[in-house]
Amino acid sequence: MIILQELTESYSLVLLSLGAGFLTFLLTGLGSSGTLFLNKVNPKVFSLSLGFSGGIMIAASFWSLLNPALELAERHHSFAFFPVTVGFILGIILLRLMDLFIPHLHLTSLPEEQEGLKIPLRKGVLILLAITIHNIPEGLALGVSFGSVEENKELIISAFNLTLALGIQNIPEGLALSLALRHTGFSKVESFLYGALSAFVEPLFSLLGAVATLWIKLALPYALSLAAGAMIFVTIEELLPEAQKYGTSDLASIGFGLGFLTMMILDTSLS
To answer: What is the pTM of this model?
Structure first.
């Protein structure tokens, strides 16, 4: 109990959030390092693994973000659904605005399918920007998850589960990105470095999310649900379509189910 109390001090939560962001960043680098040894991977493997990542993201959005947001909202609001709904919608709007303005290209898209502002950039750079956008809500989710622990100490387990889940799904994602960069003309070392650096926004936004939620405690339900809305938007708009393009909808669906169950088991058995 004494150790738990120490962990839940504000400064400790900020450090834990930053550490969680760096862990997911390092695991992305671990996945990206595969490009140093591999030239290609069976697309069906990517289909399954990206579907798995999508399942983790959707499950984590509920058990680690939306459910805690509803519990916290019930303490301060007569209509607990209101701040959660507002935050969720803001998360979707935030990611949609990034989609509209930041030039990027999804892994399996053709160059003419570039999204965002039409700025002429190398295909590899556009793909890198797409994954970086994807990593922003993950870092934010980690930050607000750890920040919410000061309000409810029991959420520390949920925050750790979220860290583990996002770290696991970053491994195949890092590999997919690095191999895609390799095939657009980057060297093996460049592909590895840029693939790993795509996740550097995760510790930055985990720090930002933790500090913001600790500073404005009444914003916790909004922040948690905003991160959930952003993660779900990314999953449906990017991860699942990419998983289907790499292989088949069956493989993507099986991977999704496995990822969803994995996150559910983590959050319900360890909390």
So the answer is: 0.87
